[in-house]
Write a structure and sequence with these properties.
Layout: H1 10-45, H2 47-58, E1 59-64, E2 71-72, E3 78-90, H3 98-109, H4 113-125, E4 132-138, H5 140-149, E5 156-165, H6 173-176, E6 179-181, H7 184-189, H8 192-195, E7 200-202, H9 205-209, H10 211-215, E8 219-225, E9 231-238, E10 245-248, H11 252-262, E11 267-273, E12 279-285, H12 291-295, H13 299-307, H14 316-319, H15 329-338, E13 348-350, E14 353-354, E15 363-364, E16 372-374, H16 376-382, H17 385-395, H18 397-405, H19 428-435, H20 441-447, H21 458-469, E17 473-474, E18 480-485, E19 488-491, E20 498-499, H22 504-519, E21 537-543, E22 566-573, E23 580-586, H23 592-611
Parallel strand pairs: 2-10
Antiparallel strand pairs: 1-8, 2-3, 3-4, 3-5, 6-7, 8-9, 10-18, 11-12, 11-23, 13-16, 14-15, 17-20, 18-19, 21-22, 22-23
């Protein structure tokens, strides 16, 4: 049997071996080149990026909240301040049995279930090793009570914090407003960088309107951490910048006078410095204590405020819409003079009612037996409805609307507070658009005495009065006088924003009639003149709460208090050098001359007497 033998080819084997070595060498060169390229990228091109990532794994940024700016009144009294207080806080990681600890603390310090629930929600948002507040604003007694048992509560301690406080409580609650905890809805829209470390935000009033100025700028700490993300060292600190301090035009003394003078009546009082537009008084009664809102008001307390029939949370000065009643008559009279529809000496007989041509319905005057023959001066002085029924019909609703609009009736004044409403000065176009109905002549008549669809806020009435006293110079009312910080100061307001072209003689005539309301023999606010040495120009008003049928008679003593007419009064003083304009609304007060006018008198007198004293 033959056997076959393979013959080796040394040359071929040598070539194969050499080619494999070359291929391996080239591969190694490529790998080395790739490694060198990567090293160059990491060390040169991407150095800054990866160094930052490395640092972030070791260095954590901890925000430092700024101190919120303080709010002062015009004389430097603090209306919103930051006060040190004690807070009971827990570090869950250091507590062996959290539920048991909460139960024991609840018994010790009488903590509500609502606060326990709030703590649990906040705890879940935080790291287990961070401190979470359970109770804020601890009293000295509560601090002392906990201090005795402190060794038995590991992971629980009392810390000093700055908390917003409102020393004047309900007196300035609707002006200053309040801060509250940032809710989930707000968190979705707020710039997170600005609010890191801050749990509160302005909710209403000046606190909300000027949030950007009051907040300040957050600082931060660079903290070196270990692998478990716990702080071991502070590397660097950038201090926060405190918020700007805000000085208001408000005078808290006058505010208290107005608030107290409203007494048993719910309502509002607004006073404006005529030459500057600064709001001196912005009182809404009843008010509420804003302090519980800062740390979180209980559901029971908040429901009590919401369900109260007196509506303490309702800002009547800014949002209260009332029929202005006879307070519109000076403006309507001025419209008649400016349009040339009537003249100041035009006389009309008032029998106690007014009838449209070929209509049996009687539009009654407040004085059942009438005022007899009256001109415009007497009609304003005695508040004759019949005279203004006739003038309104002569003007027509559209002219009335256009003229009153210039004085901010039916539109916002532009005050620096969020939430202002428009009010309403009706027109044919308005009724067609919103009611899909035609306008009727009878509606023109009742609009002429400030009833019907007409609605105005106390702020709008005060602003209109100031504009009239200023002979048509429109100055936007404002509450903030100045904003002050370490490197910034801004003065606000004081310049005329518009000028209503009015004839001086016509304004003089209207002011004459308004002066006689207080100082005339038959003036509806005559009792106001007895205790003053200067002259006040004013106008009383009564706003019906419900409509009286043709054959019925209004009997104040026979109806429920809540159904009685509202009492209004507008005024400015002194007549020959106007400095302050005031508007008062006393809900269900009945008579402007006897209820609302004395309130205005107290405010005006206190302000003018202050002007005689040296100012700080």
């Amino acid at each position: 049997m033959d056997r076959k033998f393979a013959i080796k080819d040394p040359l071929a084997e040598s070539r194969l071996f050499l080619s494999r070595i070359v291929a391996a060498f080239i591969l190694i060169l490529f790998l080395i080149a790739g490694l060198v390229t990567r090293l160059v990228y990491l060390q040169v091109v991407g150095h800054e990026h990866y160094a930052t990532l490395s640092k972030d794994n070791r260095i954590k940024i901890s925000p430092l909240p700024p101190t919120r700016g303080v709010i002062y009144d015009r004389k430097g009294r603090m209306l919103a301040e930051n006060v040190p207080t004690y807070s009971l806080e827990l570090i869950p990681e250091q507590i062996e049995n959290l539920d048991d600890t909460l139960v024991r603390l609840q018994k010790l310090l009488d903590i509500s279930e609502e606060k326990i629930d709030l703590f649990q929600k906040q705890r879940k948002r935080n790291k287990s090793f961070t401190s979470t507040p359970l109770l804020q604003n601890l009293s000295d007694e509560e601090v002392a009570k906990f201090a005795v048992v402190r060794p038995y509560f590991p992971g629980v301690d009392v810390y000093a914090r700055l908390v917003r406080h409102y020393p004047y409580g309900d007196l300035a609650s609707h002006v200053v407003g309040y801060v509250g905890r940032i809710n989930e809805k707000e968190m979705q829209t707020l710039p997170l960088a600005k609010y890191r470390g801050t749990n509160h935000i302005g909710k209403t009033g000046i606190e909300k309107t000027y949030e950007e100025h009051l907040l300040g700028t957050a600082g931060y700490e660079e903290i070196e951490t270990n692998a478990q993300a716990r702080a071991v060292n502070t590397v660097a600190t950038v201090e926060p910048v405190a918020g700007s301090n805000i000085y208001l035009t408000l005078d808290i003394d006058l505010q208290k006078i107005a608030y107290d003078a409203l007494s048993e009546y719910n309502g509002a009082a607004v006073a404006i410095e005529i030459k500057t537009g600064g709001v001196l008084v912005f009182a809404s009664r009843p008010g509420f204590d804003p302090n519980p809102f800062v740390s979180g008001i209980s559901g029971k307390e908040y429901k009590a405020l919401q369900d109260s029939p007196d509506q303490p949370l309702y800002n009547r000065a800014l949002r209260g819409q009332y029929p202005p009643g006879s307070t519109v008559k000076p403006f309507l009279g001025l419209a008649g003079l400016e349009y040339g529809v009537t003249d100041f000496n035009h006389r009309l007989f008032c029998p106690g009612y007014y009838k449209l041509p070929n209509v049996d319905h009687k539009y009654r005057d407040w004085k059942k037996w009438g005022h007899g023959m009256v001109d415009m001066n007497e009609a304003i002085t005695q508040s004759c409805d019949v005279y203004f029924y006739d003038l309104a019909l002569a003007l027509g609703i559209d002219k009335m609307h256009d003229f009153m609009d210039k004085f901010s009736f039916g539109r916002k004044t532009g005050i620096d507070l969020v939430g202002e409403v428009d009010g309403l000065m009706p027109s044919k176009e308005w009724k067609k658009h919103y009611r899909s109905q035609a306008w009727f002549p009878g509606e023109t008549l009742i609009t002429g005495i400030g009833q019907g669809y007409t609605q105005a806020t106390p702020l709008q009435l005060a602003h209109a009065t100031a504009t009239l006293a200023n002979y048509g110079k429109v100055i936007t009312p404002h509450l903030v006088h100045s904003i002050i910080s370490a490197d910034y100061a801004d003065m606000i307001g004081g310049k005329a924003d518009a000028l209503i072209p009015l004839k001086t003689q016509n304004v003089d005539n209207i002011i004459k009639g308004m002066t006689n309301v207080v100082h005339g023999a038959r003036g509806t606010a005559g009792r106001l003149a007895k205790a003053i040495t200067y002259q006040i120009a004013g106008k009383t008003g009564t706003a019906q709460v419900f409509t009286i049928k043709q054959e019925e008679k209004y009997n104040e003593d026979a109806i429920d208090f809540k159904m009685r007419d509202h009492a209004l009064f507008i005024a400015f003083a002194p007549v020959h050098d106007p400095q302050i304009a005031v508007a008062i609304i006393a809900e269900h007060g009945g008579h402007g001359g006897s209820v609302a006018a004395p309130i205005a008198g107290e405010i005006i007198d206190a302000y003018l007497n202050q002007k005689k004293e040296p100012q700080p």
